[in-house]
């Protein structure tokens, strides 16, 4: 059966529309969400699970399937449908986004993209023709052209050059297609420039592609910018062809894009966040790792009819995540997919009834308000009150009363520190905040020496603000640099400002030894969300780091990674967290953390960093240092550490890919050494 798209009813208030795709492996009702089956598997779920959730089409990843199992396997085994036992339609991407994510290890020319395989380290060349050949071997129902994907915030000249090359590659992809029953979609690029997006749509729609995708979004743009691009691009695409928004996104993203006339979506969030303990529900996100769910007999989502919500309580799911039982991520993945697919079912019904506008408003009101609320309320927090007008002298924060979350304590070596009663953890638990902030972070990062050099302001990411010790130590270091050096921009990330409030109280300041200048800066940060001097700018970003960090338009030179431990805050010690840090790192960025866990170091390696042994701190004989440039590491991990990794009982973070060991072995940090030894 050849590919066909049949447009259906349209909503009167919005541009939302119904439709049906006909493919060789069945029909797909649109708007449709495609679960991501990167390696011919939707992580942790069987095809029956995915079908039961309501999926009609899934997405496979050409880049990963090219490297393993490879085209020969698909040709020998009868294609991907038989291989993975999924009898419905499959769309395969081209590999363009994955190549983009290998910015440290790939070269793009007019011929294609050269990179090294993470499986065996061998050089690879992905061209428009070889991408189509691979997708033909896979046997997908819909293929994507190979495109050049850049951050939407790249320079205008780069965006234009990438768009024009994408157009040339699209025509080469079209010429390379050999099976007319496999549909081929082109990809509209152009960054955030309306003129470039119009030019891209105008060029591609002149050619006989079966559908059109909107690409290059959710890679540095804001939600408002993304919405404007989607609205404009969708309006420029033909009514008789499907429109596909690539890699986006959250439930509010989908609802808004449907209103602009988009038909197809994919995103890794439902399964990726499930493995981190986050569920999407009809009333917003639920983070099952939080203590508040420990004794809860409530279902995950009372409005959901999936097996997870019918069968298990939040308390049981919380228990599974605390024990790191893989059943927890599996059950939440089942629910999250059902939530996304129910959202699509509701949208289709609302369009047919002529009330999609009302449906969209109702769902946005109930869902993750922090993602579309004008107040920019951080995830999981109550709406913040309007800040008071600035005053010459801000009143000090009150000391905590009994029952407060944060308390002042004394460490085992007699240093004052702050304890979080919710997690049970002490900030800088041995030698205290002042000493550890200086030794582990400021001195080890050579912050004073870096600031003394000429150049633009140094961007420092302070992950885990806590009581402000690391950021204040950095501010003091900047104050000691002679005139003529660089400025310092500190961006701190935190979910709860209670610890900083305690530290800036009269008792907290006295016990922790904060001076008048420390207090002025910290109290201004609490009051206004930012503080600045002639040399330093300091601001706070509130919310879940995995959601807030990707939205920041910056390139860090130094990262202080100091959240609570993996036991208390597992989400910030994952591959996903360090990949977000990598994406916001400059070419000579260094990251420092107290954790020496094997899983932490392997997560950093998998994210792209080079990793080494950090300086000792207090009783710690070593810490961990990581860098985008290996020359910044004094003691890189070597073959002995790799041997320990292979023997470890907990070698990888919970979101590591199945081939994590092969990827670490193939990391340039180790593969380059092996090549030197062989030579």
UniProtKB/TrEMBL annotation:
Residues 386-398 have a biased composition (Pro residues). Residues 1-27, 366-400, 648-679 are annotated as: Disordered. It is an enzyme of class 2 (transferase). It holds the Pfam family TGT. Residues 8-27, 366-376 have a biased composition (Basic and acidic residues). GO terms for biological process: tRNA queuosine(34) biosynthetic process. GO terms for cellular component: cytosol. Zn(2+) binds at residues 304, 306, 309, 335. Pathway: tRNA modification; tRNA-queuosine biosynthesis. The keyword Transport does not apply. Residues 247-253 are annotated as: RNA binding. One of its GO terms (molecular function) is metal ion binding. Residues 14-366 form the tRNA-guanine(15) transglycosylase-like domain. Binds 1 zinc ion per subunit. Keywords: Glycosyltransferase, Metal-binding, Queuosine biosynthesis, Transferase, tRNA processing, Zinc. Substrate binds at residues 93-97, 147, 189, 216. It catalyses: 7-aminomethyl-7-carbaguanine + guanosine(34) in tRNA = 7-aminomethyl-7-carbaguanosine(34) in tRNA + guanine. Residues 534-627 form the MnmC-like methyltransferase domain. The active site is at residues 93, 266. Its EC number is 2.4.2.29. Its cofactor is Zn(2+). Belongs to the queuine tRNA-ribosyltransferase family. Homodimer. Within each dimer, one monomer is responsible for RNA recognition and catalysis, while the other monomer binds to the replacement base PreQ1. Catalyzes the base-exchange of a guanine (G) residue with the queuine precursor 7-aminomethyl-7-deazaguanine (PreQ1) at position 34 (anticodon wobble position) in tRNAs with GU(N) anticodons (tRNA-Asp, -Asn, -His and -Tyr). Catalysis occurs through a double-displacement mechanism. The nucleophile active site attacks the C1' of nucleotide 34 to detach the guanine base from the RNA, forming a covalent enzyme-RNA intermediate. The proton acceptor active site deprotonates the incoming PreQ1, allowing a nucleophilic attack on the C1' of the ribose to form the product. This is Queuine tRNA-ribosyltransferase. It comes from Anaeromyxobacter dehalogenans (strain ATCC BAA-258 / DSM 21875 / 2CP-1). The gene is tgt.
């Amino acid at each position: 059966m050849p590919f066909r798209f049949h447009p259906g009813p349209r909503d009167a208030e919005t541009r939302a529309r119904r439709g049906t795709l006909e493919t060789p492996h069945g029909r797909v009702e649109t708007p449709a969400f495609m679960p991501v089956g990167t390696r011919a598997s939707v992580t942790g779920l069987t095809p029956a699970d995915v079908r039961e959730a309501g999926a009609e089409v899934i997405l496979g990843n050409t880049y990963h399937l090219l490297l393993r199992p490879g085209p020969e396997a698909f040709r020998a085994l009868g294609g991907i449908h038989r291989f993975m036992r999924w009898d419905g339609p499959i769309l395969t991407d081209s590999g363009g986004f994955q190549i983009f994510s290998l910015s440290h290890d790939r070269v793009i020319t007019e011929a294609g993209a050269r990179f090294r395989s993470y499986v065996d380290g061998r050089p690879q060349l992905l061209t428009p023709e070889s991408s189509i050949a691979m997708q033909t071997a896979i046997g997908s129902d819909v293929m994507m052209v190979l495109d050049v994907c850049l951050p939407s915030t790249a320079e205008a000249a780069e965006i234009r050059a990438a768009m024009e090359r994408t157009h040339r590659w699209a025509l080469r992809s079209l010429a390379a297609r050999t099976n007319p029953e496999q549909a081929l979609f082109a990809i509209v690029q152009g960054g955030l420039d309306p003129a470039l997006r119009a030019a891209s749509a105008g060029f591609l729609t002149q050619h006989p592609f079966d559908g059109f995708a909107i690409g290059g979004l959710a890679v540095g743009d804001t939600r408002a910018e993304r919405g404007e691009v989607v609205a404009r691009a969708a309006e420029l695409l033909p009514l008789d062809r499907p429109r596909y928004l690539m890699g986006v996104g959250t439930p509010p993203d989908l609802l808004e894009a449907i209103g602009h006339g988009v038909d197809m979506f994919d995103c890794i969030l439902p399964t990726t966040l499930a493995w981190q303990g986050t569920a999407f529900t009809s009333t917003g996100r639920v983070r099952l790792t939080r203590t508040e769910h420990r004794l809860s007999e409530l279902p995950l989502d009372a409005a959901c009819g999936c097996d997870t919500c019918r069968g298990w309580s939040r308390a049981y799911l919380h228990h599974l995540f605390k024990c790191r039982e893989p059943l927890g991520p599996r059950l939440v993945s089942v629910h999250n997919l059902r939530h996304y697919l129910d959202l699509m079912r509701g949208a289709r019904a609302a369009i047919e009834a002529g009330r999609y506008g009302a449906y969209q408003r109702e769902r946005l009101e109930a869902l993750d308000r922090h993602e579309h609320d004008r107040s920019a309320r951080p995830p999981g927090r109550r709406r913040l009150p309007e800040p008071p007008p600035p005053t010459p002298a801000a009143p000090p924060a009150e000391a905590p009363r009994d029952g407060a979350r944060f308390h002042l304590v004394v460490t085992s070596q007699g240093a004052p520190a702050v304890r979080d009663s919710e997690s049970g953890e002490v900030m800088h638990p041995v030698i205290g905040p002042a000493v550890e902030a200086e030794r582990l972070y400021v001195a080890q990062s050579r912050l004073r020496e870096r600031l003394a050099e000429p150049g633009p302001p140094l961007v420092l990411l302070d992950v885990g603000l806590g009581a402000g010790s690391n950021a204040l130590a950095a501010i003091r270091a900047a104050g000691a640099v002679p005139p003529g050096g660089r400025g310092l921009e500190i961006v701190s990330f935190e979910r709860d400002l209670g610890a900083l409030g305690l530290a800036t109280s009269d008792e907290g300041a006295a016990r922790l030894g904060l001076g008048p200048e420390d207090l002025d800066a910290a109290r201004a940060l609490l009051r206004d969300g930012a503080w600045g001097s002639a040399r330093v700018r300091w601001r706070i970003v509130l919310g879940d780091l995995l959601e807030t960090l990707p939205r920041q338009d910056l390139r860090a030179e130094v990262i202080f990674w100091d959240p609570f431990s993996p036991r208390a805050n597992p989400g910030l010690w994952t591959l996903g967290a360090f990949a977000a840090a990598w994406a916001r790192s400059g070419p000579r960025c260094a990251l420092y953390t107290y954790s020496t866990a094997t899983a932490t170091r392997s997560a950093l390696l998998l994210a792209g960093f080079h990793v080494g042994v950090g300086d000792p701190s207090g009783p710690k004989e070593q810490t961990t240092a990581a860098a985008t440039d290996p020359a910044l590491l004094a003691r890189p991990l070597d073959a002995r550490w790799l041997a320990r990794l292979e023997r470890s009982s907990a070698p990888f973070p919970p979101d590591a890919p199945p081939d994590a060991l092969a990827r670490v072995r193939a990391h340039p940090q180790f593969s380059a050494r092996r090549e030197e030894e062989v030579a």
